[in-house]
């Protein structure tokens, strides 16, 4: 089957080449001490508040982002993944029409290298491909090819 030079899907988001250098925590040390003290001495109310404060603290971290150009092999892999996505869109749209199942909601395919943040939380390349119902995106891991 020829996959090169075919139409492109509008549902592919390529985040490869965008990486996190690291996180900078905004007052992380102080917040960690507060969470520990609440858990130890805050009683039931403190134990209920601790996870909330910890979640707020985690949301206040900022990430340093670095960007690089994709290699020719990575570009080709992305084009191949796009061709596969187009085929799945065509097949499922046809099946939904044939069986009067309404409109097929096409998922988004997100390619990333090291880690990604989703509506379901952060995921690393080790998590493998997964679906996140919160943001209705397919997340596909596509590691950089080594030369």
UniProtKB/TrEMBL annotation:
PANTHER family: INNER MEMBRANE PROTEIN, PUTATIVE MEMBRANE PROTEIN YPFJ
Residue spans crossing the bilayer: 24-42
Keyword Transcription regulation found: no
Organism, scientific name: Winogradskyella pacifica
Membrane topology per record: Single-pass membrane protein
Keywords, alphabetical: Membrane, Transmembrane, Transmembrane helix
Protein name in the entry: Putative neutral zinc metallopeptidase
InterPro entries: Uncharacterised_pept_Zn_put (IPR007343)
GO CC terms, sorted: membrane
């Amino acid at each position: 089957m020829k996959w090169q030079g075919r139409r492109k899907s509008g549902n592919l988001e390529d985040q490869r080449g965008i990486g996190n250098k690291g996180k900078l925590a905004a007052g992380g040390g102080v917040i960690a001490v507060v969470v520990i003290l609440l858990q130890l001495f805050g009683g039931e109310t403190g134990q209920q508040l601790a996870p909330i404060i910890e979640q707020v603290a985690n949301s206040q971290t900022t990430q340093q982002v670095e960007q690089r150009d994709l290699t020719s092999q990575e570009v080709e892999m992305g084009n191949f993944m796009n061709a596969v996505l187009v085929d799945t869109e065509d097949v499922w749209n046809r099946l939904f029409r044939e069986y009067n199942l309404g409109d097929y909601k096409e998922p988004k395919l997100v390619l990333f290298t090291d880690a990604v943040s989703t509506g379901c939380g952060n995921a690393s390349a080790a998590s493998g491909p997964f679906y996140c119902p919160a943001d209705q995106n397919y997340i596909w891991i596509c590691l950089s090819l080594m030369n």
